[in-house]
Design goal:
The complex is a heterodimer of chains A (about 180) and B (about 70). With about 180 residues, chain A is mainly alpha-helical. Chain A has 2 domains: about 90 residues, Rna Polymerase Sigma Factor, Chain: A; about 70 residues, Winged helix-like DNA-binding domain superfamily/Winged helix DNA-binding domain (Arc Repressor Mutant, subunit A, Orthogonal Bundle). Helices cover about 65% and strands about 0% of the residues of chain A. Chain A is built from 9 helices and no strands. Chain B has one domain. Helices cover about 55% and strands about 0% of the residues of chain B. Chain B has 4 helices and no strands. The chains are: A mainly alpha (about 180), B mainly alpha (about 70). At the A-B interface, helix 2, helix 3, helix 5, helix 6 and helix 8 of A face helix 1, helix 3 and helix 4 of B.
Chain lengths: ~180, ~70
């Protein structure tokens, strides 16, 4: 709890690095909590909007004394953002489900080690497509990334698909089953 | 899933999202072209991809986190 309060204090004062560390552990449970909305709204946009709202609200956020207070607030915020988007688009939201129990997810060092080895084995074009997405960090759309590699959009996307499939299969050979490992 | 739908799913897994004039984050254009099955497939593929991105990043930041950090203002 002490670590959580220290992190919240840093975020509240505008420490972007502290917020990045919090986001890195909060993103996965936050996204998972939105699965019931996946057919109604673009959950990637909802996750990003939610994280930006958390950053804005953090200076005024009051911890309730229970674990993972900021993450629980983020989950509630994300569901409100998703519901608002449903209303805006005039689509029926999913049936209301109880608020899920959430906890931060910390990086898995074993997955990291295996993945680094698998990445080294990626063939050229899929490796380039993956690298473009990683370097961009969401700043550019795929059309721009494809143009940098002198690829058509479809070729870029096919190579990116190959990269994902290659990494998944390589991890499985190393005994890492993503379906079980991923939250 | 058709090859065309698979490419739409792959586009939706990107963390790139356009912003409106009011700063709101728009849904990906390709997302609107997917049916319910495609949207669920895009969700699951994104969950998997973000975990991989985070594991490939030295500080564990996925493309979503990178996109959000680039837009921080206060």
């Amino acid at each position: 709890m002490h670590e959580e309060l220290t992190q919240l204090a840093a975020i509240s004062t505008g420490d972007a690095a502290a917020f990045a560390r919090w986001c890195s552990t909060a993103e996965a449970p936050l996204r998972r909590a939105l699965r019931t909305f996946a057919a109604q709204v673009d959950t990637e946009a909802v996750v990003q909007e939610t994280l930006l709202r958390v950053w804005q609200v953090a200076p005024r956020f009051t911890h309730d004394g229970q674990p993972h207070a900021l993450l629980r607030f983020a989950v509630r915020t994300s569901r409100n953002v998703a519901l608002s988007e449903c209303r805006r688009r005039r689509v029926t939201p999913p049936e209301e489900a109880p608020e899920p129990t959430v906890a931060p997810i910390t990086p898995d060092p074993l997955l990291r080690a295996h993945l680094a080895r698998c990445r080294e084995k990626l063939p050229g074009a899929p490796r380039s497509a993956l690298q473009q997405r990683l370097d961009s960090g969401g700043a550019d759309d795929d059309t721009a990334l494809a143009a940098r590699l002198n690829m058509s959009l479809n070729t870029f996307l096919q190579n990116f698909t190959r990269a994902r499939r290659f990494l998944r299969e390589c991890l499985e050979k190393a005994g890492v089953n993503l379906a079980e490992e991923l939250p | 899933m058709t090859a065309e739908e698979a490419l739409l799913v792959e586009q939706v897994t990107s963390a790139h999202r356009e912003r409106g004039g009011d700063g709101s984050i728009h849904a990906h254009r390709a997302w609107f072209d997917l049916d319910e099955t495609g949207r669920l497939a895009a969700f699951d593929a994104t969950v998997e991809l973000r975990r991989l991105e985070a594991a490939l990043h030295p500080r564990g930041e996925s493309a979503t986190v990178a996109a959000v950090l680039a837009r921080l203002t206060r």
